[in-house]
Description:
- The structure holds 2 protein chains of 2 kinds.
- Chain A is α+β, with helices and mostly antiparallel strands.
- Helices cover 52% and strands 20% of the residues of chain A.
- Chain A has helices spanning 9-58, 72-78, 156-204, 220-271, 275-304, 315-332, 351-368, 399-402, 422-432, and strands spanning 59-62, 65-68, 86-91, 97-100, 118-124, 127-138, 145-154, 311-314, 336-341, 346-349, 374-381, 385-392, 436-441, 447-454.
- In chain A, helix 1 runs antiparallel to helix 3 (156-204), helix 5 (275-304) packs parallel to helix 9 (422-432) and helix 6 packs parallel to helix 7.
- Chain A is rod-shaped, with a radius of gyration of 50 Å.
- In chain B, helix 2 (34-43) packs parallel to helix 3 (60-70) and helix 6 (160-171) packs across helix 8.
- Chain B contains 8 helices and 10 strands.
- Chain B is elongated, with a radius of gyration of 19 Å.
- Chain B is an alpha/beta fold.
- The chains are: A alpha+beta, B alpha/beta.
- Chains A and B meet through helix 4, helix 5, helix 6, strand 9 and strand 11 of A and helix 1, helix 5 and strand 10 of B.
Amino acid sequence: MSPPTGLSLQRQLLLWLLLPQLVLWAGGGLLAYRFALSYVEKGIDQSLTQSVRALARQVKPIGSGLLIDFPKAAQDVLEQDPKDRLSYMVSSPPGKFVLGNQNLPQPEMPVEQVGTPLLYRGTLDGKPLRIVALDLDYGDDGSPQTMRVQVGKSLQVQQRIARELVADMLVPLLALGVLLSLLVYGGIRRGLAPLTRLTSQLEERSVIEREPIGATQAPSEVHALVKAINGLLEEVARHVRQEKRFLDDAAHQLRTPLAGLISQVELAQQEAQEPALIERLSKVHTGAQRSAHLVHQLLTLARSENHTLRAPLDLAALAREVAREWTPRALAADMDLGFEGEQSLMVKGDALQLREALSNLIDNALRYTPGGSAITLRVERTALGASLAVEDNGPGLQPAEMAQVFRRFWRGSQQPGGCGLGLSIVREIARRHGGEAAVQAMEPHGLRVVLNLSGKD
Amino acid sequence: MAHLLIVEDDELLRDGLSAQLRQAGHLIDTADDGEIALDCLQKQAFDGVVLDLGLPKIDGLEVLQRLRQTLPALPVLILTARDGVEDRIAGLNGGADDYLTKPFNGDELLARLQAMLRRASLPAFGATTSHPPAHASGALRVDPSMPRAWVGEVAIELTQREWELLALLVRCEGQVVSREAVLAAWQSDAGEGGALASNALEVYVHRLRRKLADSSLNIRNIRGLGYMLETARP
């Protein structure tokens, strides 16, 4: 319908409402992960501190040596989870390996206070560890000694727990996000509905309608738009009315004097005696009639540019009705005007315009076929929808002429009366009915003008 | 001969039209605006009116409305420059008997006027007229209340259906009467009723033609469209 014009309002709103949500969601996830990591670390630190104190209690100095009472139960506590990978080391003096896992890294900074655990990070076999180191004094007053107890715990478990926490938090958040997006989408659609309604109202509208567009339930922003459009429509309608009035006035102003002229010439033709004068009057009569015909066609053309209002109608009945209206004129011209084909055929069409098209075709046939000819209106069902044809058995047209007939102001041969607008009006009307007009030659001679009308809207 | 009023504001046309109708043997009075026209119609009796629509002072359609209040049966032919179908419908709904757009062919106007005046003077189906029907030889008269008709002074015998068909054709003289219109007229007849064979109509038309052989009228078969009563050509 419209040329590319940037992102639709609906998409822009969706984008700007959902994009911040996505950023919020991603940022929140990252922060949550960080918090989870630190809380898990605190937990680990606490359990490490407990473990290191418990282990320290089991280390008992005996003379200058150390006795480590490490019962099975304590070992179980330390190694309760094989994945936790608890490692321990006892050294005395600090750094000099006595017991445990001697690869456990030493703290990079010195332990400042004896009896206070120091927590730090390190790696064991390339894996990150959280380690606690506790220095304790032992021995006699004569030979004081210091021992260091260290316990390390793999940080892999910390990361795993943090990931699980974040996942547990983010999955419901994701579901909420989807729900929120749906709500936002629905809200936008609802909010924009007045615009959609306005569009469809405008699309279905014709310029000749006078009623303003209604916007009773629309929000205030749309109200202003509707008001502006209504103003514009009123302006257009006023112009259309003016134009129609001008056409009516022009019709009256042109036709009445022409009627007078024709009437006077007809009288003069009867009164004239001299053959040369009679012939001249006959030429004047023809000229006046041609002008009258041209006026009629121009007005019809102007009117046919109005809006097409298609409604269900019986094309066959309409054709017969128009034919009956033309019968007296056909009989006066010694023509056999008849109807053949479907008795009833429903189509969607503009009755006034189809009538105009048919009248033009019958008028043409009466003009360009000699007396004694037959003119047949034919309505048939076609694959496209329906066809409406006017056939005559007159002289027809040359093939070269047939290609030209639909051009405005083109006139075939030197026949009097025509103005070359009739068929272009007919074609315009056929096109407005989703179809096309065509001319064909009749066998053995004659012309067939057919309007193919589409059954669709 | 009929006494006609021509209401037309354009002098050229009024003059030409009057002369043409006088030549055809009618008695003509003219009015150049709606006021004068209504005045004339009050003072004199006319057989018919030729009325323009775009008139000064009082518009043609209003003239028509006003004259219909006092003269419901007066035949009125509208002559107008407005040729839209809507205008035609407005004119006919307003009570006009016929409608012709300008410019027109003189012969066509005369023929239409003649048919209109004849319809008004034929006392078919309750139509009233101020003039007694002409009893000239060949003239057809149809009794509006029972199946009787005369050609000149000679009575012709008609069945109910023949009479209904003939009356319909007479009412629509000069116009094509569709088969559907005839069948509808017959169907409304409670006396005979029943479905009709599609070729029954042709049989009736054939019989009527024979009975009208001595009249000046002829029933013409219009291909695919219906039948039309017309003045027989010499």
